[in-house]
Every structure is written in structure tokens, then in C-alpha cells.
Amino acid sequence: MAQTDRYLTRFENHPLPIRLLLLLILALGLCLGARGRAEGIAPGRLTIPRPLTHFVLKDDMVFRTSVKNIFGHKAFLSPVLTKGDYVSVFSDADGTYYQGSKDCLPNPDKRAVFPALDGGLWIPNPGSARKPKLWFYMKAMPQSMAGKAGVLIKYLDALSAGNIKKDTVDFEDLSFMESIKVEPYQPVDDGSSAKPDDGTIRNR
């Protein structure tokens, strides 16, 4: 405590411009330190797969997933992928991200901040030990919430918005993969469909 008081006294003895500069340096350090803690991964760090592939869900697909709480107990959830066309938009070293139409990940919790998210299904490469995951684009918090958040929280939130994140829940049953037929994708170029490399695929 005495050492802390000594540092505070030294800080207060500096002229005001010096104190402001020190505070600015401290704030910059916090921001740069927080940069590495942004959630998800920026789309620009992923690869656009070539050739493109896709699969079609003729009906909404309901999954049984689970996540462990802090006590090690499982909580079961039933996320949904809405029916439609899912196109390969990104890939990483372990698999491929297939994206559906806008709001293809509805949230069953009516109290949720976001009723639905854009995203889809991440499928691991053949022979991989990894398991499929749902994924989504992270969104910035609504203005109604942002006004109550601190500066650092809003900074981190803005830093993560637009990033891609795999869901943390695990599928209880992987038999649904047997019904997913991945095939070469031949887009209909009528001027209305977005392309994975033009930055607008999430708004299809």
C-alpha cells in the first residue's frame, strides 16, 4: 500500500500535460493488450475454398447438442439449421465453413438479444478426428446495451463484430452427417447471387 501511495504521489506531482500523456499511453496499452483477446477469427484470415461445394437441406434440421456448465453437468440444447442451400465460403486447416441464407440459425430462446444469426455448419476434412460444429458471424451489441457498457467492453465488442466463431456446444449424435451430401457448386449467375469472395455472401 505504501508503495502504491508513493507511485500515486509521483504521478500527481507531474504537470497536467504529462499526466494526460501518461493516461493516454496507459489507455493505448490496454487497447493493444485487449486486441489479442477479441473473440472469433476475422474472415480475412481464412481461405476461400476452390472449387466451391455445397449441400442442400430440404427441411429444417434440429440437432441435439450439449454443453458442460461450471459444475461439469451437461445442459442440452436443440439448435436449428433452416432448410436451404449451404455453400462453402471459407476453409481453415481442419475443415470447411458452409453458409446458409440470412438468419439461418434461429435462436429458440425468445429472450435472446439476437433472434437469429447468420452462419451455418463447419464440416471437418475427411479423415479428421475433429467433429462438425455450428458457426456464426459475431454481431455488435445493440445500441440499447452499448450505452450501458464501459469503454473497454465496447472496444472489444466492436473488435469482435463480423468475426467468425464456431459454437462451443457438441453434437450428441452425428448421424445427421449421413444425410448431408456435399457436391460441387455451380452458382446461377443471374446477377442476384452473392459470391464468397465479394464480401456480401452473408447477405444472401
Features:
single chain, 204 residues, alpha+beta, 7-stranded antiparallel beta sheet, 14 strands, disordered N terminus
Map the helices and strands:
Blueprint: H1 2-13, H2 16-35, E1 53-57, E2 61-62, E3 65-68, E4 74-77, E5 80-81, E6 84-91, E7 95-99, E8 105-106, E9 116-117, E10 119-124, E11 133-137, H3 143-146, H4 151-160, E12 164-166, E13 170-171, E14 183-184
Antiparallel strand pairs: 1-6, 1-14, 2-5, 3-4, 3-13, 6-7, 7-10, 8-9, 10-11, 11-12
Helix pairs in contact: 2-4
Question: Would you write up a description of this structure?
Answer:
- With 204 residues, this protein is α+β, with helices and mostly antiparallel strands.
- Helices cover 23% and strands 25% of the residues.
- Helix 2 packs parallel to helix 4.
- The N terminus and C terminus are likely disordered.
Over all CA atoms, what is the radius of gyration?
22 Å
The biggest beta sheet reads: 7 strands, antiparallel
Number of helices: 4
Mean of all residue-level pLDDT scores: 75
* Topology, number of strands: 14
**Could you say which structural class the secondary elements and strand pairing correspond to?**
alpha+beta
Q: Approximately how much beta-strand content do the residues carry?
A: 25-35%
Helical coverage, percent range: 10-25%
In the predicted model, the low-confidence regions spanning at least 5 consecutive residues are: 1-12, 21-37, 191-204
| Morphology | globular
CA(first)-CA(last) distance: 58 Å
Give the topology string: H per helix, E per strand.
HHEEEEEEEEEEEHHEEE
- Strand order across the largest sheet: 12-11-10-7-6-1-14
Oligomeric state of this protein: single chain
